[in-house]
Amino acid sequence: MYYSSGNYEAFARPKKPEGVDNKSAYIVGSGLAALTAACYLVRDGQMKGEHIHILEKGNLPGGACDGYKFENLGYVMRGGREMDNHFEVMWDLFRSIPSIETEGVSVLDEYYWLNKEDPNYSLCRATVDRGQDAHTDGKFDISDKGAMEIMKLFFTPNEDLQDKKITDFFDDEVLNSNFWLYWRTMFAFENWHSALEMKLYIQRYIHHIGGLPDFTALRFTKYNQYESMILPMVNYLEAHGVDFQFNTHVTDVRFSCDDAKDDNRKLATEIRLVHENNPAAIDTAEGLPEDGKTAPVADTGREETIPLTENDLVFITPGSLVAHSSFGSQDKPARFAPELTPGDGWDLWKKIAAQSPEFGRPEKFCGDPEKSNWESATVTTLDEKILPYIEAICKRDVRSGKVATGGIVTARDSGWLMSWTVNRQPHFKVQPKDQCVVWIYGLYTSRMGDYVKKRMRDCTGEEIAREWLYHIGVPVERIDELAAKSCNCVPVMMPRVTTYFICRKKGDRPDVVPNGVVNFAFLGNHAETFRDTVFTTEYSVRTAMEAVYTLCHVDRGVPEVFNSVYDVRVLMQSTKKLMDGRRLTDMKLPLPKFITKPVIRAILKKVDKTEIGTLLRRYDMVDFDL
Q1: In contact, 565 and 205? CB cutoff 8 Å
Q2: Is the pTM of this model over 0.85?
Q3: Of the residues 56, 82, 286, 462, which is catalytic?
Q4: How far apart (Å, rounded) are the C-alpha atoms in residues 27 and 537?
Q5: Is the terminal CB of the chain with fewer CB neighbours within 10 Å at N or C?
């Protein structure tokens, strides 16, 4: 497997890999990374669909990329997806996935046309004082000292960031700025999260710094992530004969890591699984809604062991972002129940990791759910009464079918640090046109609310709706009635949703294809790949493409991570944006004492008639008349 860039590799079709007709594939789970692996096996690995087996313990595909209407509960999305025009692997994939809405076009075509005709931007990024515009006004509000703290992190080698926290680099100069408000609420970073991942994010999205305040950097799908992304992939795979086995619970994967011929050789030798007789019990373990009031009990089901040879490829997504998530309802809180249970995604990773130190350290990520949780809620309006308050903030008709809020709106003074968004409506294909679906999340689930004097994690859907209505400016005397009668709110607590941001060091996550591996790979947010950033659709699909290309020996380049961090023009432009238009010569830089104004003038005079001077003038980086 190798990386590439440019159209030569992008438009090429690889030859059929040698021996692929004799291979089969077993994919554990059916999240975005898993489905992507299956798609690349079909398209570029050119493996027969009937040789590809997707083993999913639930009864629906998609993993964390969900979006359903549950009977007697309502519309639910645990999260949402924000896309970037330089998700190189994702667009390489979706150019080949047919649309399920428009015959003869791809998902990429559909997405590209939509975002060209209706580009995303926000008219209000944050509010204060119960729905009043916080007037962040596109400013980052970073001091010179804060800018130097960001610069220091940017240039610190990865080796020096192992197990370091963000607060090891940032103090209040950054943490009280608009920059941090934008950043933490958009990506769900916390102060104690990984400084390494923070650095990777800054470098990865340096070309979008200017688009952070108003979300012009983002692109969104027409409907929710399940209907716009997952279903087209499933249809594509089913059309190629891929075998989906639902209610099939993989309990262990066994490996041989000490082959006599090569001490470093690692071979997956068998998959142990259970075909569940009571799939509702698995739904409960994964946090999906229960039909009754009492959680169903899992029975033993039918056990099976699949022996593996070198020609049987195995793709595993270690851990789970949504395991142990819990659904509430309008009149019921979502339980905070972080206890690990036998058979969940973390239990499987622990069993795998016990077989080799190169398979990662799951305890590093799943051990402290107080550092990795947040709670979301899906609100569905039931009449017209709430809409005027939403539209007063986003300044758009939310039922126009076009961009509404243009990304999240953060209630800056919320005790829960609550953010909310209205995407293009209808957000579900079956959604009535007179309804509006709103997604809410709170980063601080253990803090007290401002109107509802309870912790978010203790609140029913109706109580969360009250808190949201309070922060969008609904008159206090109307809040309780509107929360009870004019909307339905379904909360979801996710104890380990940001485990991928936990401080880590080299070896905590397994490589996509560890050294010496013959027939298996790791996928998703807890697998290690070069330069890209977790908590993105791109990371999931990238790990899958790398895995398939490596194990199948596909002779075509994997698109490298967009290299804007190496473009001096982007660096200058982003620095100027981050500094709210200030020049370098306006800043109080920690320069040596001998670098005086006369010295700076002499240097500027020297470079002024060079290409360096041309760039400095183009991006207005310095004052040449200093």
Answers
A1: no
A2: yes
A3: 82
A4: 18
A5: C
